[in-house]
Design goal:
The chain is an alpha+beta fold. It has helices at about 1-15, 80-85, 145-160, and strands at about 20-25, 25-30, 30-35, 45, 55, 65-70, 90-100, 105-115, 120-130, 135-140, 160.
């Protein structure tokens, strides 16, 4: 567990820390509520500073993190918001970047190979702006095992929906 924590910690520090509640697949905090479903089988809920929800796979090598920023909403282009998620990673190599629709809005999907503290990682970031909020979805994996848990990340994206603000 220590290795994954060290490999992703700057990503989590780059996001704003907020207190919220995760219940029944819904995440609620001041100014925002969204649905991602329950904890996926084979994963556990993990607390990481600066993220609303983080799941770590039972093997402790894969991580999925979700965060919404509404109060400190930055109306920057999706590429700029994605670059903020890459802070702390070195030797970044973009594999693929594309716009796809998510929740009836354009979302930027960015797939990278990078290193954190010399440890290679494969990353998939999805950034969405909707209703005055920025939603970040992150999937982080060892490069040789990226495809193993990718379906879980894709399922979370399929289930994701914004809810009326509380």
């Amino acid at each position: 567990m220590k290795r994954i924590s060290l490999a992703i910690w700057p990503v989590f520090l780059a996001a704003c820390a907020h207190q919220g509640a995760y219940n029944g697949g819904f995440y609620t905090k001041r100014g925002v509520q969204y649905y991602v479903g329950g904890v996926p089988p084979g994963w556990r809920l993990q607390s990481f500073r600066g993220n609303d929800i983080a799941y770590v796979a039972e093997d402790s090598e894969h991580l999925i993190a979700i965060n919404a920023s509404c109060e400190d909403y930055e109306d920057a282009p999706l590429k700029v918001l994605t670059q903020q998620l890459l802070m702390g990673f070195t030797e970044r190599k973009l594999i693929k970047e594309e716009l796809r629709m998510l929740q009836d809005r354009e979302a930027l999907y960015s797939h990278y190979l990078a290193k954190m503290d010399g440890v290679p990682r494969e990353l998939l970031f999805v950034v969405l702006k909707k209703d005055g909020c920025v939603y970040d979805f992150m999937y982080i994996s060892p490069p040789d095992r990226f495809d193993e848990k990718l379906p879980t990340f894709e399922e979370i994206l399929k289930r994701f929906r914004t809810e009326p603000r509380p």
